[in-house]
Amino acid sequence: MVDSDQHMSCYTLLATCDDFVVIDKQPGISVHKDDQLTGLTMRLSEDLGESVFLVHRLDKVTSGVMIFARHSLAAAKLSALFRERQVNKYYLALSDKKPSKKQGSVKGDMVRSRRATWRLATTVNNPAVTRFFSQAVDPGKRLFLLKPETGKTHQIRVAMKSISAPIVGDALYASSLADRTYLHAWQLHFRYDGQDHHYRSDPAEGEFFLTQSVANQLAVWGDPQQLPWPKS
Q: How far apart (Å, rounded) are the C-alpha atoms in residues 160 and 148?
């Protein structure tokens, strides 16, 4: 029997379409089976009573907007959109360190480092590219709006560390301890079968995300596609 209360604590259903569903994933939930626990993909399938297909990923520590296809054809089409960089992804992150630059881009090859981490190299053979803005919010805290142009593992977490501003609560990249890792997939914008789709979910967990200063800044950044993004 499915424990629906347990499952629903892992995500919030945002939208249901013929070809896909959109959820807000909670932090600390793996998209795959992890440590003998049922992964998010399986839980969502059980709750909906149908198979769903993973077309992109979020790190276990990351919350926010995710899409799951409802059939194999949709999975192929959506996966192609992500692969061909036809999906605009916007993330929020908080740091309590002073960044080496307050806006701009981070570009470099991702190479494996110690303890299952990655680091940014100075080479650009197959680089990860992340553009960002930031704004001081609460005392000692700076909110970042990030647009990854590529989809590399740990890309945003490594980009933040590379500008001397690791994400609050990201123990893997030597940040401050907190009640969660403060990285949230805020919005997804894409065109599918001739129709524009925009999905947004503001952070719902984490005391530092839930302040009025953060809410005020999200209102300023409300339509990120219209912002003057730094060149990559």
A: 12
Digit-coded pLDDT (tens) for 95-137: 999 999 999 999 999 999 877 899 999 999 999 999 999 999 9
- pLDDT band at 33, cuts 50/70/90? low
Name the residues annotated as catalytic: 59
For residue 35, is it left (φ>0), alpha (ψ between -120 and 50) or beta? left
Three-class secondary structure of residue 115 per DSSP:
coil
Q: How far is it, in rounded angstroms, from Cα 59 to Cα 49?
A: 25
Q: Supply φ then ψ for residue 217, to 5 degrees.
A: -70, -35
Listing DSSP states for 143-160 in one string gives EEEEEESS--TTHHHHHH
DSSP 32: S
- Residue 64 carries which side chain, given as an amino acid letter? G
SS (H, E, C) 184-201: EEEEEEEEECCEEEEEEC
For residues 198 and 106, the answer to whether their CB atoms sit within 8 Å is no
What letter represents residue 38's amino acid?
T
Using a 10 angstrom Cβ sphere, with 0-12 exposed, 13-18 middle and 19 or more buried, the burial of residue 31 is buried
**Separation of alpha carbons 48 and 36, rounded Å:** 22
